[in-house]
Amino acid sequence: MCLSSLTTSPCSASSTDSSSLSGAASKRNDMMENNLQEDFSSEDMLVAKNSMPEDDPNGNTLHDAREIRWGPQHAGAKLLASQYTKEKRFQEIISIILCIIFMIYNFFFICRYFDVRNCYLIIPSALLGILTADLASGIVHWCADTWGSVDMPFIGRNFLRPFREHHIDPTSITRHDFVETNGDNFAVTVPYLLYMAYKFTYWNDTDLRKIYNFEVYMFLLAIFVSMTNQFHKWSHTYFGLPSYIVFLQRYHVILPRKHHRLHHVVPHDTYFCITTGWLNWPLEMIKFWPWLESIVETYTGAKPRSDDFAWAQKTEKVHCY
Ligand SMILES: [Zn+2]
Ligand SMILES: [Zn+2]
User: Fold this and answer.
1) 96 CA from centroid of ligand 2 (Å)
2) Is the overall model pTM greater than 0.85, yes or no?
3) What are the boundaries of the region Disordered (predicted)?
């Protein structure tokens, strides 16, 4: 889906009376404006109608609640949340401890070999590391959202499950603690941080100075990959964020809340980059994701987002009192 097609989203509450919908949407728009202290346009109202109102803690107040479309009471979200295991949590804790130890160790050597005369290379290397992290976040997020199923052995429950849960209950991430939020991302960086620590420990000074800029690139890449889901969590947090985080979001140093809402418009097929979000607009302009999807579909026959769509349908009837 291109952003220009937001008005034709298949989940646009077609059965709802249009006048009450526009009134409710404008009321909610006012609420969001107050909470976010950001300017909202008519496009934002379309986003608000087609994604969970995360600034509304109940998450379903716009609708008649005959079927829960989003949030912690969604039947699929409850089932997916119940599949988080003790073993998985243990793996996440170990990953976070190892990652932090190696980060501190490597940072000591990055500082030790820092030479201000090389700033013209160090700064671009660092920025390239951040951009690479943003691109990597987009590709991994796109793969997990678009292909595969929760029923697949090992990766289904351990890796794809949180992505399915996140679409039908975007607020669940705000209730996850630091370990559950960041465990997987920290784990990804451990092997390279270990290798970097090995180089800083055993290589001689001359060789280390030759690879210094590359290691700065990899170090920034590792930091931003590690922090990606924390930035993502903050982009879903509408209450109680520290002012310095809001400042970083407002000036788009990290993923802004309003920006990330575009991904959460059904059917979740664009704006996949969730580290800084810097690459979302350029990738949207060149239609990068539809192009990738058409290639995969042509060669495998798989339909994009079929599992994601199936989980979204796992609603259960609720009683209206
Ligand atoms: Zn997603
Ligand atoms: Zn999200």
Assistant:
1) 21
2) no
3) 1-28
